[in-house]
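>> received
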Amino acid sequence: MSLLPPFSLPGRFWRGNLHTHSNLSDGALPLEGVINAYKKVGYDFLQMSEHFVSHFKFPIADTRAFRGNDFTTLIGVELHAPETSAGELWHIVAAGLPLDFPPPGPNETGPQLAARARAAGAFIAIAHPAWSRYTIEDGRAIESAHAVEIYNHGCEVENDLGDGWYLHDQLLNEGRRLTAIATDDAHFTNPDYFGGWVNVKAESLAPDALLAALKAGAFYASQGPEIHSVELRGKELTVHCSPVDFITVVCGNSRTCGRHGKSITSATFDLTKLEKGWLLKKPSDWFRVTAIDHAGKKAWTNAYWWDELQG
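>> returned
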């Protein structure tokens, strides 16, 4: 049986949030207050992602002074430029930017800005697709994206628009090998904090190590449950996790495998079931795992691609 990444990788998991705002842009708390709030509840790292627009004088929060042995920060922003299919500004999370990253040019589009940020070393994620009403054409346009924000806690608690799986999975079915992040998008104006995060597997808490792990997809996303391991033998998949009431495997078509129970901590699935069905025309090229606890909180792996597993 083969232990799959990120669980097979060296290091340990570090809990972090990549999308947060202070009063440097439109958040309610000062920078130090936001960082201390995340440190107090046990986060290992945080990125402030202030709105990178002229209204706030293009802020990039310099959080290096808050780094230490047991907590660190990434430098980044939430990028904005014209124009989505809904006629609004793009919202793009960029983690790992240099502090002197230049503001967008007068004619720079969202896809161009995202590509420039990636070239500057950033991890790029398409933010809150449901809230932004992104179409599949919008998703296709951000060719430089590493990830889709598949859960945004702020959008969920404010207006029930926190989901991004619809866009993520469609893009995967078109061959885009994107990963999936959960975030808060916290402004501290309502209970929009501590609701979604990434658990990043890295050998140290150094910002460069975390950034490299994010780019490599060495993480899983969560609202609470922990995934301890995912193992594959042929087409048999075994998942170990913290106590949950449902574990499911989904893929790029309507086929699924699932196990229900009370406080179950493991399940084994025959993934050939994902390839069967009288309406099924083509097996999926990928699958992913979701674990759901008694309160409805979820944890999600990134997608696993069969050609990579069998190559």
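>> The chain has eight helices and 17 strands.
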